[in-house]
Amino acid sequence: MLRGLTTVSFFADDVSAARDWYTELLGIEPYFVRPVEGPPAYIEFRLGDYQHEFGIVDRRFAPHGRSDQAGGAVIYWHVDDVEAAFERLLSLGATVHDKPVERGPGFVTASVVDPFGNILGVMYNEHYLEIFGTRPTESI
Fold first, then answer.
1. pLDDT at position 138
2. In this structure, what DSSP letter does residue 61 have?
């Protein structure tokens, strides 16, 4: 039924400011911007080993309206060093949502609230690395 992560959507009142913040965090520019001219209503990055889509949508288009509190699902992105990723996020202006916690051998999680009110989770997950290690290599 569920075949894989396609797009994670975050919301922001100021998509341009969110683009700048995430460009600084990720070290890449979004590959897709809508509209092309004028302030963007939607931007999208491709991230990580599987090039998952990470979109930022103008909050006007949020399906459930605006909330003044961060909430909802926490989506965790695998990182090799949770402490370092957590500290970098804080240094860029995110605030603590959940400090780094070892959830069991091989599993450490943390989360922050980005400057736009979205929860961003980071996780060291040994299962992710096991699955990633079983990917077939591409022929050149």
1. 56
2. G
Whether 112 contacts 89, CB under 8 Å: yes
Identify the structural domains of the chain with CATH numbers, from first to last. Answer: 1-62 (3.30.720.120), 72-140 (3.10.180.10)
Residue 22's identity, in one-letter code, is Y
What Cα–Cα distance (Å) separates residue 97 from each residue in 85, 112, 126? 14, 4, 23
H helix intervals, the chain = 15-26, 82-91, 126-133
Q: What is the mean pLDDT of residues 7-13?
A: 91
- Strand intervals (E) in 1-140: 7-12, 32-34, 42-47, 52-58, 76-78, 95-104, 107-113, 119-125
Residue 139, pLDDT score: 46
Q: Is 88 exposed, middle or buried (0-12, 13-18, 19+ CB in 10 A)?
A: middle
Cα angle at 66 between 62 and 69, to 5 degrees? 125
* Cis, peptide link before residue 35, omega less than 30° from 0: yes
* Per-residue pLDDT band at 81 (split at 50, 70, 90): very high
